[in-house]
Design a protein that fits this description.
With 207 residues, the protein is largely without helices or strands. Helices cover 12% and strands 5% of the residues.
């Protein structure tokens, strides 16, 4: 008896599922083990790695790829992460206080509620990143690309925003008291209940 059309389709689907390659972890297991054991890693492949709640204080990494990695609640205080790539990584609630992220790529990364006090983000790219509720007090954001980033409720007290790109950046409820904004334009940023460097409130961009 010839199988019906639905039966043939079901058989084809099952065969395709059986033959489909099994997804493999994108990160290099040896690189991950070395990082956790020594807190040193150069040119590491940590894409999609799970480093949630990891103790990485004083970590030393450069040219590492942590794209799409999970670092929720991780402690990377005082770390050296220059030239690393963490596109679309999740740093929600992570401790990045006094971390060196100069020239790092964090495009589309999530840093909501993260602690970035006194961090150095010179020349870093955070285009489209979510920094809502993040603490960036005293951070150095010179020439940082924050285009279309979300900084709602962020604390930028005393931050250095010299030549920072803020096109389309949402600064609703953000605090910029005492921040340096030399050669930085706020005309293309979203200002709503935003505390400006001089302490005044700007709600010109509120709906």
């Amino acid at each position: 008896m010839t199988p019906s059309a639905p039966a043939r389709r079901a058989a084809a689907w099952l065969l395709a599922a059986f033959l489909a390659p099994t997804p493999l972890a994108a990160f290099d297991a040896a690189d991950l083990d070395r990082l956790l054991a020594t807190k040193h890693c150069f040119d590491c492949d940590l894409t999609d790695a799970d480093l949630g709640e990891a103790d990485l204080r004083d970590v030393y990494m450069t040219n590492a790829d942590m794209s799409r990695a999970t670092l929720i609640g991780a402690d990377l205080a005082n770390g050296y992460l220059r030239f690393t790539t963490s596109s679309e990584a999740d740093f929600t609630g992570a401790n990045l206080e006094n971390v060196n992220l100069e020239s790092a790529t964090l495009t589309g990364a999530v840093l909501a509620q993260a602690q970035l006090r006194d961090a150095s983000l010179i020349n870093a790219s955070l285009s489209g990143a979510d920094l809502s509720g993040a603490t960036l007090a005293g951070a150095n954001l010179t020439r940082t690309n924050l285009r279309n980033a979300l900084l709602t409720g962020a604390d930028l007290t005393g931050a250095n925003l010299t030549s920072t790109v803020l096109t389309g950046t949402d600064l609703t409820d953000a605090t910029l008291t005492g921040a340096t904004i030399a050669r930085t334009s706020l005309t293309s940023a979203i200002l709503c209940r935003t505390t400006m460097p001089d302490g005044t409130a700007d709600s010109s961009g509120c709906p």
